[in-house]
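Supplementary Note 3. Input sequence used for the single-chain structure prediction.
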Amino acid sequence: MVSEELKDMLNMAIAREIQVSIQYMWQHILAKGFEGEIVKPELRRIAIVEMTHAEMIAERLAYLGGEPTTEPAPINVGESVREMVEMDVRAEEGAIELYRKVIKKAIEEEDYTTAKLFEQILGDEEAHHDYFKSVLEK
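The predicted structure, written as discrete structure tokens, is reproduced below.
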């Protein structure tokens, strides 16, 4: 069986995924102006992907004998579209950092299924990060 440390890391991941799914959906609703109209559809799409990540991680954690959290990490919507996207870049960077640690820890514990799950999710997070970074480029 896996360590409590790995289970705690999975719960941190769930909290982050719930956070950004709400954060991105609210940004989709609240983004205004020309810039807002450009990013709204992608914010909505990514929000749904993030909620799917939360579900997959929660299912894995439950299988491993843990109890998935229902509490999101702190949600930061932002005021302007630029501020929203800057916050989103930081959120994705935090996820990428955490998920690399989860993969490493899961491999150390020979939990290859969790490692594979997070490799898949990491790919999505890197794509989201790339999108948000490209939006900020001039």
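Helices lie at 4-30, 33-63, 81-108, 112-136. Residues 33-63 form the longest helix (31 residues).
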